[in-house]
Amino acid sequence: MKSIFPSLKKFMQRDIQPVASNEDSISFKEVFHTIDENISYLKHIFSDSADLKTKEFNEENNRGILVFLDTMADKDKIQRDIIKPLMEAADGQFENVLHSIFLKSNNLIKAQEALLNGSCIMFLNGVNELYMVEIGLSKDRSIIEPSNEQVIQGSHEGFIENLSTNLHLIRKSCRTANLTMEHITLGEHVQSKLSMVYMKDLANPEMISEFRRRVNHISMDHLPGTGALQELIEDSTWSPFPQILNTERVDRVIGHLNEGRVAVLMEGYPACLIIPVTFFAFFHSPDDYNSRWMIGTFIRSMRLVSIIIAVNLPAIYIAVIGFHFEVLPDDLVLPIVSSIKNIPFPPLIEALVMELTIELIREAGVRLPSRIGQTIGIVGGLVIGDAVVRAGLISNTMIVVVAITAIAAYSIPATEMSDAVRFLRFPHMILASTFGFVGIIFGFMFTLAHLCRLESFGTAYFSPWAPFRLKDIKDTFIRLPLWKFNTRPNDSKPKILKKQSLARGWESNEKKQE
């Protein structure tokens, strides 16, 4: 490294322009004249943390120091991308080398942020400038299919915890100049980086502005994650229904982007938030579009039927046993009577005990290691079910009802909607035990009215049923052939409503030739 630092000093002092900035005194701190002052300032900011490392260079009475965080920087990159090029450069090539490696700044606050993001900082004694270069340590997991959103057909790529990789996956799958990405930083003490992705020619500007407004009014020391962000920006936090779709699938995000919606990703989290969404979006799966449309319609309809079963089946059982025994067919009366005649508890207590037991088994299965989690769930359910029936505490009929209810609840693709459905069964059970069928109907009407009243970033949550729009029903609880999707759903208020001209144009050409 002969005569490196005289050349470095001349280069840094030559053509230095003042940095234009609108930052206030809190976000701007000018670089000190000496290296020791700069190092002392950074050590004070980082509280003399053990992972703050410095590497000093001395050449011909000139002194320079590299500063980096050992836990964030890649030492191999420092040697390969910084030290080696400077040592190998000839006297006349230092300017070119520095231009290709470093970014110049005179703000120590930016240096602090750069260090936290995995950059290396270079100081030269007597120069009021610092140089930054990105040499972050990368320890990302591989890109695999999300375990909670697996499909039979289609893409098997999923997001990971690295924001840059996630944005790359979106850009790779949607190669168009209209795809726009905006970066937002949140957090007073611990900053979190968000990215908003949308199609500039499709997304509604008013909805984008509304998202920016809500995000800019978040004032927290630290944003814990996408779940916290979802709670802070959704329209109604008092509703059990999720108003923002949470997904880890790349193909699902691309589909929503092409319908004029906005995707929000966060550094350190694989989940992507989709806004705005409707109630029916939580029951769609990529398999619906990769299979025959009739099969997709059948499966999707089964999912929506599963909501009614999961919410109302235990309540219906309680109402029948407690108030409306006469609705049972004659062939079922004797088996059910013999099943419940020796049970010491009322139907509500039976249902509550078994439903809570199922929830505990599910929670234990999630927390236990994957190799034994499934075994505990299956064996625990069989053993407990058989034991409580033999002990005469729970009836056989209740075991059947609880099993069907659990299967129906877990058939919903979106975990958040599945949680909401499982939660709603408990108030419905209490209403059924108090008022019978009247209580069930009242609970259903209240839930339906609540769904019609909800909004997601200005979009009616129960669209296209409330308000009713016939053209958009083609992709709700049914899935018509794709060549019928000539227009985009109106719920996201896209700029361009038309989606395709004539998807099966070859048919019209054949008819013309005939």
Structural write-up:
- With 514 residues, this protein is an alpha+beta fold.
- It has three domains: 4-134, no CATH class; 163-277, no CATH class; 291-460, no CATH class.
- The protein has 18 helices and twelve strands.
- It has a five-stranded antiparallel beta sheet, with helices on both faces.
- β4 (119-124) and β5 (130-134) form a beta hairpin.
- The radius of gyration is 31 Å and the shape is elongated.
- The termini are far apart.
Give the integer mean of the pLDDT values.
Answer: 83
Whole-number count of domains: 3
Low-confidence segments, given as residue ranges, are 1-26
Shape: elongated
Major sheet size, sense and barrel closure: 5 strands, antiparallel
List keywords for this structure.
514 residues; 3 domains; 5-stranded antiparallel beta sheet; 12% strand
Secondary-structure blueprint:
Blueprint lengths: L3 H10 L21 H11 L6 E8 L2 E8 L5 H14 L5 H8 L1 E3 L2 H9 L2 E6 L5 E5 L28 H11 L5 E8 L5 E8 L5 H12 L9 H8 L11 E3 L2 H8 L4 E5 L5 E4 L10 H5 L2 H30 L7 H11 L6 H21 L2 H21 L5 H15 L4 H21 L1 H17 L1 E2 L2 E2 L44 H9 L1
Antiparallel strand pairs: 1-2, 2-4, 3-5, 4-5, 6-7, 7-9, 8-10, 9-10, 11-12
Helix pairs in contact: 3-4, 6-9, 11-15, 11-16, 13-14, 13-15, 13-16, 16-17
